[in-house]
């Protein structure tokens, strides 16, 4: 397993005002039934860790890129609910474009 960050990033402090650190080594436990292959570890948290899951990592096939501007959504931090981005990309998805730009931040 690659090195993991020992504590949750500053998003928890910024969004929830939490100052205590969470040691991720207390929460990330490899499942015994994890097969061969490449996986991503998703950590869902708010004030505390709510869920840790391992999902198969499937890279997206990107053929072209297009910058999409929107001042309507904020995305300085990753959120579980990405419906704003999905709605923004809906018109470009049919053309195979997977890049976006929100409030001056490239993603």
What would a concise description of this structure say?
The chain has 107 residues and is α+β, with helices and mostly antiparallel strands.
Can you offer a commentary on this structure?
The chain has 107 residues and is an alpha+beta fold. Strand 1 and strand 2 form a beta hairpin. It folds into two domains: 46 residues, no CATH class; 38 residues, no CATH class. It contains two helices and five strands; from the N terminus they run H-E-E-E-H-E-E.
Please give the structural blueprint.
Layout: H1 11-16, E1 39-45, E2 49-56, E3 69-70, H2 83-93, E4 101-102, E5 105-106
Parallel strand pairs: 3-4
Antiparallel strand pairs: 1-2, 4-5
Characteristic terms for this protein:
5 strands, three-stranded mixed beta sheet, flat, single chain, 107 residues, 16% helix, two-stranded antiparallel ribbon, disordered C terminus, 2 helices, 2 domains, alpha+beta
